[in-house]
Amino acid sequence: MNSRQTSIGRLMDGIFASVIVLFFTLLPTHTLHEMYHLSALRINALDALFAIFFALAWHYLITLLQVYDRSQSILARVGGLFKSAALMGLLMSIHGYFFHRSYGGLALGFMTASALFVYQSTRIFVSAWILNRESSKNPLRVLILGSGRRAGKAWRELRIQHHRSIELLGFVDNRDTSDMAPDIASRYFGRVDQLNELLLSTVVDVLVVAMPMQSCYGLMQEAVNIAQGVGVRILYLEDIYASHKQENATGLSLFRELRIQKEHHFVRMAVKRTIDIVVSALGLIILSPLLLLIAIVIVIDDPGPVLFSQPRYGYMRRRFRIYKFRSMVQNAEALMKEVEAANEASGPIFKMRNDPRVTRRGRFLRATSLDELPQLWNVLIGDMSLVGPRPMSVRDVSLFDEAVLMRRFCARPGITGLWQVNGRSSVGFDKWIEWDFRYIESWSLWLDMRIIAQTFATVLRRSGAM
Hints:
- The chain has 3 domains: about 5-135, no CATH class; about 140-250, NAD(P)-binding Rossmann-like Domain (Rossmann fold); about 265-460, no CATH class.
- About 55% of the residues lie in helices and about 10% in strands.
- The protein is built from 19 helices and 10 strands.
- A 5-stranded parallel β-sheet has the order 3-2-1-4-5, sandwiched between helices. A 3-stranded antiparallel β-sheet has the order 7-6-9. A two-stranded parallel ribbon has the order 8-10.
- Helix 1 crosses helix 3 (about 45-65), helix 1 packs antiparallel against helix 5 and helix 4 (about 75-100) packs antiparallel against helix 5 (about 105-135).
């Protein structure tokens, strides 16, 4: 999570705190009817200044007591939150005693502290619940670089503390397995010079660097460069700079760092996911008559299944089934070998302008991208996003010959993206990958909005479709 997002979150906490204080400050001197109609509120300068002071003091306290620090345990963060709420409740009680004797300062302080505590603790627990649920459903796949004492300590920590949400794939090192501890040797994954090939065939989320920096710098840098080029996250242990004598004195925080990385990523994508859910749900409801009409046309044109389903590679190369309106004959995949020689696209993808497998109505559906509408369901259930790199078939990915191409899976696949608004099928594979990388590197909500707007124009022109 970047500093801008952190600042926005803290600003929202401050605004909430000031609104809560104003509400309970005005409650003794206003009726509920006046509280409902904002124009009837009478806010004096003293109350406004106190609300601002309260918000700043609240922000300072929860920062000081590490409520925002996601490296702390949930209990530690809630404990700091309780202390903050108690102190701010006391401050509110003093203010209420001197300025609003009718309701009692203690009652005002208790209500204010309770509201702030419930709001902030709900944020903490909901975030932790969603993160743990996602971790259990989709565990991080980890490689450990190294095979010595540091690597063994890292593995034990992962195995004991969070074995349900982290999957260890193995150890990467150039040492002979006979020089490794038996439990590490039995999980040996390969040499560093084989890492490019290994990452091409295996899904890896995180590379944990567990080699001593001083004696293995060259080997470590080679592995890090390969992994970063593929989009694998790098995690350095705290003690890789330490000498052998200092090693035991330097504590590991591997589990904490992995959790922070995943939580930061979760927070960063929360807004994007919210937009995906709202838009896809509304789209499926509003477009339901059109979806039904398309289904009827498909059945009349070529009796058979309305939807076409196929396994695709999605975010971090996890497989999912994509849904589209069927625009080809029923046995299209079985006929693939007969038409593959007529492929008009470069690279490991198949495109053919006059594909004989496409039905008469299917050509219209493809030209107008109406065949893609069922993917709103993929967006709703979380397999895809509205905007992102296009999901690629298992066949296409199996033909990749460079591990760096796997970097395109660092983002959740989308119905539309930079490739679609910059030529679609008329653009070669290399340019397609370039657009995908550019999107991953420069992603923002504004970029998503711009791509969606350009998509409508591209579809209306029917440009680049095959």
